Amino acid sequence: MVDYLIVGAGLFGATVARGLMDSGKSCLVIDRRHEIGGNCATTRLNGVVVHQYGPHIFHTNSAEIWRFAQRYCEFQAYTNTPKARTKSGLYSLPFNMHTFEEFWGITDPEAARKKIYREEAKPRPVNLEEKAVAMVGRELYEEFILGYTLKQWGRDPRDLPPSIIGRIPVRFTYDNNYYDHIYQGIPKDGYSALVANLLSGAEILLGIDYLLDRSRLDKMARHVIYTGSLDALCDFRFGRLPYRSITFDTQYMPQENFQSHAVINCCSLDEPHTRSTEHKHFSGKSSSCTYVTREIPCEYDGSNIPCYPINDHTNNELHAKYRSLVAGRERFSYGGRLAQYRYMDMDMVIAAAIKLAKKLNAKYA
Ligand code: FAD
After folding, report:
1. Which residue numbers are catalytic?
2. Which residues of the chain have pLDDT under 70?
3. Cβ–Cβ under 8 Å, residues 279 and 49
4. What is the dihedral of CA 83, 341, 41, 191, to 10 degrees?
5. I want to staple 227 with a disulfide (CB 3.0 to 4.6 A). Which of 9, 138, 237, 336 is the partner?
6. What is the pLDDT at residue 163?
7. For the purposes of burial, counting CB atoms within 10 Å of the CB of 340, is it exposed (0-12), middle (13-18) or buried (19 or more)?
8. Residues 37, 192 contacting (CB under 8 angstroms)
């Protein structure tokens, strides 16, 4: 018998396993996928590190989390400076003076400000459209956000809650850096190498669905840590937690360069995908071929990948019901982006996993 059974070999499961193993505990880590890394998983194809589930850039303001991640892999510096392709051309993101000059020919920050904020912002936006227009103005909204959102969520932005989008950065400086965070980079050998190093010393079993063999697996450990969805764990007793999914279409191209940039957001409805990623540009390493992943959003049907939780009031309430159903279970903990039913960046996932490991180490000292 092991001390812990950890369900899910994603970043949360791997980080919590590391924290427990460092305190002398034994961990069995299982995943229903046939690979480790969860949604951060990467693979190396013809020398190119390919992010299998969309581009992942590690960014954080926490020196502690940054130092932690550095212990398990070598990072290369990378600044996320995505581009946006709209009907009228290719522009810089996030919205900044480069964008305003490219789109309107404006170089004066005050003129750009006036153009963006000429419309009265609604004090309490009731839908995504009102919130986005308040943040970036109607013209940028219609060119850059409307088509992208329709594709991303499969719904009219007027039918989506404002809470679904966070703050959209708007800068009146020439600064293409997408993130405000102090630390930013990408593991040189990919995220799967990072996760493999975190898991060093754990027993790992892949291709095993915990929910199909729960009672036998539970008997193998003193404590279970579950990083999957709570609705599935509770046999969908109150119904399914809705998600938006993505089809990741990765293509090999026998050419050196396809789009000259790592990440391009595709805002127009003329193309079905929301993003096009050419992986080799993350490292800048030369290779005679290239790989491009296009992300095509689709409905989540329970068999594809649950990517983005649809965090409206009803669904959050549903998740709260599941949370209270599993709360207080002896010998059981949960965590990670699926169990929490919320979008979490990787630094948040690592921080939450370290916290859980510390709590369990104190409990079973
Ligand atoms: P997951 O990676 O989902 O891992 C959970 C694991 O549990 C999975 O491997 C799953 O197979 C397994 N599992 C679930 N149920 C079972 C079961 N019943 N039995 C066995 N195994 C099970 N974050 C950033 O910081 N920067 C980025 O640039 C970034 N880009 C992103 C792009 C996209 C398109 C998406 C969707 C997310 C992005 N993220 C990014 C977020 C990042 O992917 C997550 O923070 C991270 O993957 C969450 O790790 P996790 O371990 O919580 O979940």
Report:
1. 167, 171, 244, 275, 295, 343, 345
2. 121
3. yes
4. 80
5. 336
6. 85
7. buried
8. yes
> What is the Cα–Cα distance from 7 to 17, expressed in whole angstroms?
10
Residue 16 near ligand 1, beta carbon < 6 Å: no
279: how many CB neighbours lie within 10 A of its CB?
24
Indicate the length of the chain as a whole number: 365
Residue 240 CA to its chain's centroid (Å): 21
Q: If you search the block for the tokens 């079993």, which residue do you land on?
A: 205
What does the pLDDT read at residue 328? 86
- Give the per-residue pLDDT at 209: 98
Tokens of 82: 């995505």
Amino acid symbol at 348: M
* Alpha carbon distance 220, 254 (integer Å): 48
With a CB cutoff of 8 Å and minimum separation 6, the contacts of 292 are: 250, 251, 253, 258, 259, 276, 277, 278, 279
d(CA 189, CA 49): 7
d(CA 275, CA 84): 9
| Whole-angstrom distance, CA of residue 358 vs CA of residue 20 | 8
Give the residue from 220, 311, 340, 295 showing the smallest Cα distance to 56.
Answer: 295
Q: Which atom of ligand 1 is nearest to the CA of 233?
A: 18
Q: What are phi and psi of 31, to 5 degrees?
A: -150, 145
What does the alpha-carbon distance between residue 214 and residue 8 come to, in Å, rounded to a whole number?
14
Q: In this structure, are residues 244 and 311 in contact, taking their beta carbons and an 8 Å threshold?
A: no
* Interatomic CA distance for residues 87 and 90, integer angstroms: 9
H/E run at residue 334:
strand 332-334
pLDDT for res 365: 85
Measure the CA–CA gap between 118 and 173, rounded to whole angstroms. 19
Tell me the CA–centroid distance for residue 214 and ligand 1, in Å: 21
Please give the Cα distance from 295 to 276 (Å, whole number).
7
In contact, 2 and 20? CB cutoff 8 Å? no
Question: Measured from the CB, is residue 339 less than 6 Å from ligand 1?
Answer: no
pLDDT at 299: 95
Rounded Cα distance, 334 and 160, in Å: 29
Q: Does the Cβ of 32 fall within 6 Å of ligand 1?
A: yes
